Amino acid sequence: MKSQHSINSRRALIACDEPSFEQSLGHFYEKNGWEWLRIRDETSLPAALKSQKYSHLLIQAAGYSEKNQKLMLAARELQQHLPVSIIIEKYDPALYCNFFEAGAFSIMEKNEWLEDKQHWQEHLEAYLETVESLPPSLLHLLRPQSFGYLTGNSIRVQRVYRLMGQVMNTDRSVAIYGESGTGKEIIARMLHENSRRANKPFVAINCAAVPENLLESELFGHEKGSFTGAVKDRIGKFEYAKGGTIFLDEIGEMSQFLQAKLLRILEQGEFEKVGSNTTQKTDVRILTATNRNLLDAIRNERFRQDLYYRINVFPLVLPPLRLRDDDVLLLANRYVRKLSEKNFCGISKELIHFLREYHWTGNVRELENILQRLSILSTGRFLEMNTDIEMPTLSENEKTDSVQKYMPVSGISLAEMERQYILMTLDACGNNISEAARILDISRVAVYRKLKQYDISIQK
Length: 460
Prior knowledge:
Number of helices: 19
CATH architecture of the largest domain: 3-Layer(aba) Sandwich
Strand order of the largest sheet: 2-1-3-4-5
Structural class: alpha/beta
Strand content: 5-15%
Number of strands: 14
Number of domains: 4
Largest sheet: 5 strands, parallel
Radius of gyration: 25 Å
Shape: globular
Oligomer: single chain
Distance between the termini: 27 Å
CATH superfamily of the largest domain: P-loop containing nucleotide triphosphate hydrolases
CATH class of the largest domain: Alpha Beta
CATH topology of the largest domain: Rossmann fold
């Protein structure tokens, strides 16, 4: 169900100095049910934004001029969460970096927009739905710095934002799923900091990092003399977190004995310290995270089914970076800005190509690692690829079983194998790009790039 500002009532502002392209932009908006208005500079904004509600500002930019800078600043002052998109003639590292730093929602080359404008529109609609679904008190979450590893405007990240907005002010248990490096603890902290428990403790513990024989004491505390080395009483994480939130990372590694004690807290809000017969009450919100499939663990009798249903009240799945094509450049440019000692002006075209195509098995941690490595050897104005250091070329988690099914009897090139596999996937899903992207485990944008790379045309 759409909000009161439905797609059919959306309006856009266009700042474009090229009449023919302005008409193309306007026609595209109209085709998608939008109204649009031409503006020339920042002086036109106040009257426009006061007379109507606008959902988007699109600027065609020849460069990062004072005019464009003023236009963006004025738009943000008048309507804080108005997304501003930039279309440039050709890639310029400094231009990208400056516009991202100024808070641009998206930046695209003109030809790139013409080829993939429908995906760009879906991307924009997802952001607007997020803005409209979040209560005013939570709109600050859309600031790029708010989510750390989850910074981004991609459709998958917008979905996570919307789900977080729905569960933040409740006491429901949230199970956060995601690969290593996707930002599970960051999300847990954000859920706590924007809840009614924000002024109480947030306690995080990695269940896989504490030896099993010590984890019970860490979580529930112990009495003096309850075991060798227990020379004094100690409070546990659940007692310390009373009134606040406890985050149990890697909960899939917890023993079944401790799972039973955790289940009792979830059901009755009570526990005993190690070595004590006194039952204590506690009031905590429990957030959990894992990168394991807990349903498989249940089938293998390593995880309690009753506990699973208690912690999995509200599952939140964090997308891996390889499925967030729209966010890679944003994250990379923000990280480059942190490298202040080198004062880079942006990222080279060659490196951009690598960042977009790489599989990112280590997610944002791996992205930061590679950028930091390259920054050591880059000496110019831009962060660049460097052949003097070994760069990863193949994904560590390739789906070898799937590949082997299509291995040819006689050798063919890797490129031809990839082309054939894409063709078979498209055929299997009736040329549905979204479904092909899901099967191939890449984004829609990446599918379109592959189609162009291998000169594949499809019938829609």
